[in-house]
Amino acid sequence: MFTSYILVFLLSGLISLVVTPLIPLLARKFGVMDRPSERKVHQRLIPSWGGLAIYLAFSGSIALIFLFNDAFRLLLRSHHFLVQKYLLGILLGATIITILGLIDDKKGLKATIKLLGQVIAGVVLLWYGIRIVGINNPFGKTYLEFSLYLSFIITIIWTVTFINSVNLIDGLDGLAAGVVVIASITFFVITLFQIDKQSSVAISNRLELVAIMALALVGSTSGFLLYNFHPAKIFMGDTGSMFLGFILGAITIMGTLKTVAAIALLVPIMVIGLPLLDTFLTILRRLKKRKPLLQADREHLHHRLLDYGWGQRRTVLLMYGISGVLALGAILLTIL
After folding, report:
1. Enclosing H/E stretch for 67
2. Cα 334 vs. chain centroid, distance in angstroms?
3. What is the residue extent of each domain of the chain?
4. String of b and e for 264-289 (b: at least 16 CB within 10 Å)?
5. How many CA atoms lie within 13 A of 45 on its CB side?
6. Number of continuous H segments (helices) and E segments (strands) in the chain
7. pLDDT in tens, the chain (336 residues)
8. Is the dihedral of CA 194, 199, 204, 207 positive or negative?
9. Nearest to 272 by CA among 170, 196, 130
10. Is-contact 256 267, C-beta < 8 A?
């Protein structure tokens, strides 16, 4: 699969580099421009919809290696096309969440409508057999299997949490994109370790797909990041942040949650620890102030650092560093 890894990374990065500069033309034509406001940091009109480039690079690179890479086609045909079924479910859910983001960036959907769309994308994963079935007992050698309904509920909550964690941290130039690149590289490395430990061919094949998707995410997001780092020429919008969160949520369900023994939940939580922490603090803050949980504000961690006098670049680089340390911890935890 080494060739598949290299191909999907290079293709996703190349497509992203080529397509991203074209998106501002589309955004201006349809009037999808991010306007300055009291809550936002930027001071000028900036084209949005950049997430569309990430989506096209991600899905396009996977489509191309399907056409030109025999090993990838063989992988998808394994175990009665079960791996192909997983991939189709993720791509369909990602398409739904991307369309939702495109509409939201254009018209501004109500928070309840966005939440409903996120749940529908999660239901698609369930429909295609991608769900959190259970977890190993950290205090023994038994496996705690969830009931079907509990499995459905936990899977939906997990997916929606990942989507909104990335969405909430997307407040500075390059912040969300950079954190996702770090997380995706980490999931790729962790998955490689897990593949080596597997005696089950079925699980190994599923993990191979996870590794390929993680690298496709690295390439597509890195290409976009070159245009999104401060001073940003384009924003990903909810189109990008929700798509990235959805893919991260899906690959953790397929990968680390099913293989990392007693630390199954801790590893993915550490990898995106910074967005999750910001989400947790946001919920506490809004509950304390009796504000709607889905109401936007300017009190996130990155906003606080800006208020303390840090510039955008320093703030973003610091948060990259924190994410990198957490990611390294997750890798070491997996190895040990």
Report:
1. helix 51-68
2. 20
3. 2-335
4. bbbbbbbbbbbbbbbbeebeeebeee
5. 6
6. 14, 4
7. 788 999 999 999 999 999 999 999 999 999 898 776 555 555 578 899 999 999 999 999 999 999 999 999 999 988 778 899 999 999 999 999 999 999 999 998 888 999 999 999 999 999 999 998 877 665 556 667 788 999 999 999 999 999 998 988 887 888 899 999 999 999 999 888 888 777 678 888 889 999 999 999 999 999 999 999 988 899 999 999 999 999 999 998 887 655 544 455 566 777 777 767 777 777 776 667 666 655 555 566 656 666 666 777 888 888 899 888 888 888 888 777
8. negative
9. 170
10. yes
DSSP string, 69-106: -HHHHHHHHHHHHHHHHHHHHHHHHHHHHHHHHHHHHH
In angstroms, rounded to a whole number, what is the distance separating the alpha carbons of residues 109 and 112? Answer: 8
Cis preceding linkage at 231, omega within 30: yes
Which tokens sit at 222?
A: 């890195």
- Note whether 292 and 286 are within 8 A (CB): yes
